[in-house]
Amino acid sequence: MAAPKQTTAVAKKNKPKFTVRVKTFFRSVWAELKKVHWPTKKQMITYTGVVLGTIFVIGLALWIVDSILTLGLEGLMSLFD
């Protein structure tokens, strides 16, 4: 049973320092960011327009449904007054 404790102790000794691990992490992140295909300004404007348009349409649809349900419930509640 003592063998697993020794292997973890050896693993801790071979583990690099915290600062080295942090530097390695950020270097890896930077390398991955260089691989990303970034959209052009025109594409960003188009995508932003699509998102804002979609939000407007969904908001309008929710407002219509909410208004209809509110009118229906108010009419239903007025029957019991």
Question: Care to describe what's here?
Answer:
With about 80 residues, the protein is mainly α. It folds into two domains: about 1-35; about 40-80. Helices cover about 85% and strands about 0% of the residues. It is built from three helices and no strands. It has helices spanning about 1-15, 20-35, 40-80. It is elongated. The mean pLDDT is about 90.
Biggest β-sheet description: none
Radius of gyration: 30 Å
Helix residue percentage? over 70%
Count the beta strands: 0
Number of domains: 2
Q: What would you call the structural class?
A: mainly alpha
Report how far the terminal alpha carbons are from each other.
Answer: 77 Å
Q: What layout of secondary structure does this protein have?
A:
Layout: H1 2-14, H2 18-35, H3 41-79
Short key terms for the protein model shown above:
2 domains, mainly alpha, elongated, 3 helices, 81 residues, 86% helix, single chain
Give a brief outline of the structure.
With 81 residues, this protein is mostly helical.
